[in-house]
Amino acid sequence: xxxxxxxxxxxxxxxxxxxxxxxxxxxxxxxxxxxxxxxxxxxxxxxxxxxxxxxxxxxxxxxxxxxxxxxxxxxxxxxxxxxxxxxxxxxxxxxxxxxxxxxxxxxxxxxxxxxxxxxxxxxxxxxxxxxxxxxxxxxxxxxxxxxxxxxxxxxxxxxxxxxxxxxxxxxxxxxxxxxxxxxxxxxxxxxxxxxxxxxxxxxxxxxxxxxxxxxxxxxxxxxxxxxxxxxxxxxxxxxxxxxxxxxxxxxxxxx
DNA sequence: ATGGCTACGATCCGTAGA
Length: 255
Hints:
Layout: E1 2-7, H1 11-24, E2 29-33, H2 44-48, E3 53-57, E4 65-69, E5 74-78, E6 90-95, E7 98-104, H3 114-136, E8 140-145, H4 158-161, H5 169-179, E9 183-185, E10 199-200, E11 212-213, E12 216-221, H6 222-225, E13 228-233, E14 249-253
Parallel strand pairs: 1-2, 7-8
Antiparallel strand pairs: 1-14, 2-4, 3-4, 5-6, 6-7, 8-12, 9-12, 10-11, 13-14
Helix pairs in contact: 3-5
The structure holds one DNA strand.
């Protein structure tokens, strides 16, 4: 089973890139973030024409998550049950026997801001949700844009980013608390190139300088992680004209 | 020196992203 996550930063704009990428990289599951489309505007037919099943939970302009899959998703649940949130950031479904939770973690804007507090509250709610889902689904993957670089090696310039949003200790602690429910970062199960990142600012030629962060993660339950045969970041789409600022992350599971 | 892109929905600028 091949699973990918990709923050497309507007599905409307990135549809050509997504279709080209899927043609070259067939996937069983693709988790998208920042679709920025209300549900009536979701390009369902266009994706179904590629032989994919679709599930989506979106809103205009901001946020929005979607799951594309080669087999029909079941038990589709949008949002974090019991956590009131108008922002469309979470979508779960069971696909081919695996429970998949697609997440778009809040950015947090700046340490100490209202949005930062929301991010930490949101993380706590996600942890409780994942903990409950793990009890029901041993084969669980929680993937998406986490908006946290887990460690300094996931940051191009740790000194410059020290204490900043996306790299601050409370955010990293929230991510570790999520992992402590029983998840593993698939990417770090394997030897990886130094300075592996999944997001680069549009400005300052950040991609050319590889001035990025690794904030897009595929976390798997321990039984599923043990079946992970590969996890990599595909930088190719970031090199195209008018790219998303995020690259897709892919994992392959021998199940 | 504190911005530099990009997307969006609103007008030719503000909000947000990360």
